[in-house]
Specification:
The chain is mostly helical and about 90 residues long. It has a single domain, classed as Orthogonal Bundle (Hypothetical protein af1432), CATH 1.10.3210. It contains 4 helices and no strands. Helix 3 packs antiparallel against helix 4.
Protein backbone atom coordinates (compact mmCIF):
# COMPACT_ATOMS: atom_id res chain seq x y z
CA UNK A 1 0.00 0.00 0.00
CA UNK A 2 2.91 2.32 0.71
CA UNK A 3 3.87 2.46 -2.96
CA UNK A 4 0.35 3.44 -3.97
CA UNK A 5 0.23 6.14 -1.30
CA UNK A 6 3.51 7.57 -2.62
CA UNK A 7 2.42 7.39 -6.26
CA UNK A 8 -1.01 8.90 -5.63
CA UNK A 9 -0.76 11.05 -2.47
CA UNK A 10 -3.87 13.17 -3.01
CA UNK A 11 -6.30 10.31 -2.42
CA UNK A 12 -7.72 9.19 0.91
CA UNK A 13 -7.48 5.70 2.39
CA UNK A 14 -10.47 4.35 0.46
CA UNK A 15 -9.07 5.72 -2.81
CA UNK A 16 -5.70 4.16 -2.06
CA UNK A 17 -7.36 0.85 -1.28
CA UNK A 18 -9.27 0.86 -4.57
CA UNK A 19 -6.21 1.80 -6.61
CA UNK A 20 -4.09 -0.82 -4.79
CA UNK A 21 -6.63 -3.54 -5.54
CA UNK A 22 -6.67 -2.61 -9.24
CA UNK A 23 -2.87 -2.32 -9.32
CA UNK A 24 -2.52 -5.79 -7.80
CA UNK A 25 -4.82 -7.25 -10.47
CA UNK A 26 -2.84 -5.54 -13.23
CA UNK A 27 0.52 -6.49 -11.77
CA UNK A 28 -0.49 -10.15 -11.69
CA UNK A 29 -2.04 -10.11 -15.18
CA UNK A 30 0.94 -8.29 -16.70
CA UNK A 31 3.76 -10.06 -14.88
CA UNK A 32 4.92 -11.91 -18.00
CA UNK A 33 4.75 -8.84 -20.27
CA UNK A 34 7.59 -6.46 -21.01
CA UNK A 35 7.84 -3.22 -22.94
CA UNK A 36 9.99 -2.84 -26.05
CA UNK A 37 12.79 -1.52 -23.81
CA UNK A 38 12.72 -4.75 -21.78
CA UNK A 39 11.21 -3.13 -18.68
CA UNK A 40 8.12 -4.60 -16.97
CA UNK A 41 4.92 -3.59 -18.77
CA UNK A 42 3.35 -2.42 -15.48
CA UNK A 43 5.45 0.74 -15.94
CA UNK A 44 3.09 1.83 -18.74
CA UNK A 45 -0.17 1.85 -16.74
CA UNK A 46 1.67 3.48 -13.82
CA UNK A 47 2.77 6.32 -16.11
CA UNK A 48 -0.72 6.68 -17.61
CA UNK A 49 -2.29 6.66 -14.14
CA UNK A 50 0.13 9.38 -12.98
CA UNK A 51 -0.88 11.55 -15.94
CA UNK A 52 -4.58 10.91 -15.24
CA UNK A 53 -4.03 11.87 -11.60
CA UNK A 54 -1.57 14.77 -11.72
CA UNK A 55 -2.28 16.41 -15.06
CA UNK A 56 -5.97 15.71 -15.51
CA UNK A 57 -7.09 15.35 -11.88
CA UNK A 58 -9.26 12.27 -12.38
CA UNK A 59 -10.83 10.37 -9.49
CA UNK A 60 -9.48 7.28 -7.73
CA UNK A 61 -12.04 5.23 -9.66
CA UNK A 62 -10.57 6.44 -12.94
CA UNK A 63 -7.03 5.73 -11.77
CA UNK A 64 -8.09 2.20 -10.83
CA UNK A 65 -9.71 1.86 -14.26
CA UNK A 66 -6.35 2.54 -15.94
CA UNK A 67 -4.89 -0.54 -14.25
CA UNK A 68 -7.94 -2.71 -14.90
CA UNK A 69 -8.00 -1.65 -18.56
CA UNK A 70 -4.43 -2.81 -19.10
CA UNK A 71 -5.02 -6.08 -17.23
CA UNK A 72 -8.08 -6.94 -19.32
CA UNK A 73 -6.59 -5.69 -22.60
CA UNK A 74 -3.98 -8.43 -22.50
CA UNK A 75 -6.06 -10.93 -20.52
CA UNK A 76 -9.79 -10.48 -21.17
CA UNK A 77 -10.46 -13.46 -18.94
CA UNK A 78 -9.29 -11.44 -15.89
CA UNK A 79 -12.08 -11.51 -13.32
CA UNK A 80 -12.99 -7.97 -12.29
CA UNK A 81 -16.71 -8.54 -11.70
CA UNK A 82 -17.82 -6.68 -8.61
CA UNK A 83 -14.59 -4.71 -8.44
CA UNK A 84 -14.82 -1.85 -6.00
CA UNK A 85 -18.09 -2.92 -4.43
CA UNK A 86 -16.33 -4.16 -1.29
CA UNK A 87 -14.00 -1.16 -1.02
Amino acid sequence: MERIEKLFPRFDASGHEMIKKAYDIAEEALKEHTRSNGHPFIEHPIAVAKIADEEIGLSAECIAAVFLHEATRFHPETDIKGFGQDV
